[in-house]
Amino acid sequence: MILKSIFIGGESGSGKTVIALGLALKLQQEGLKVGYFKPVDSAKGLHCQRGEDVALLKEVLSLTHEPAVLSPFQTGPHYLSGGQRRGTEALKEKIKTAWQTAKDNFDTILIEGSLSPDTAASMGIDAISLVKLLDAAMLYVIRLENDYDLDKTIFANNHFRLEGLSVLGNIFNNIDRTLIDKTKGIYLSIMEELGNPVLGIIPRKAEIASPTVKQFHDTLGGELLTNEGIGLERIVEEVVVGSMTIESALGYLRRAPNKAVISGGDRSDIALTALETSTSVLILTGGLYPDVGVLTRATEKNVPVILVHYDTFTAIERLHEISHRIHPGDEQGVRIAQENIINYCNWQAILQYLSS
Q: In CATH, what number does 211-319 get?
């Protein structure tokens, strides 16, 4: 069988790594030897370490190559500093050399795209350029929140075709339950009418889509005012800012499940009210220590309390850096990633493509 590779592309936060993980495990289950390659790895945020996705796939798939082979180029928000632009051709050769090593002895390689399809375009190693360089087929993962996201997906597919890429299909991933019916009834038909194949519609699973309190604490920093072992593995599905009156806030606090509540440390009324609802963590801003009654009640409810020494706006801005990541020891996350492919994707079409 001639080796065929699949490039898994998509916008930031679309869940490319989870798709790569689940698909790799399913293809392994079907008897294929599956490799992994991430030619351009992007670092983002204040606390995000490089290579987390590579480390996950390397361990779960038992890959023997070093991370420098599996992901030969690291980039970041200011990667053009220091004259990087001058080394474009040498960089492509570096990626091709690593690719030749990484793909050896496998039936197929799953290539994960970088932060977004346009990342590193100035270096000539954006998603489209890499698909051509590595002779792969595009599998596009869609992050869907509203109609504009469908527009961007159609635009991207049109661009792929104009560039002569082989597009294996599209996967709607991590779709909120409020959008599932619209995705199946409207978005799917529009995509198919325009000749854009859809290979899956995966519903949102809080277990792998939602970050944990620990990830909030790692990103925000600050002081953990409750016991360190309490509640850090709780998931956070929503964020509520408690800057309103109790009367106005009560409805929001009752409706939002598994939430993080951000409030000034002097708003004990908001904090105590939040603790009587489904709250995963209290984030107190401004460096203002809360009333002792808040900490007592939080301890009784096993709800962590994080105190940060900056304002609420800054805290919200930093939360934009948070996205859930599956780690090698996360057996539940790894299992759900595979189940999503089995239950919600046309993996048979992907297997047929690889076997043809």
A: 3.40.1390.20
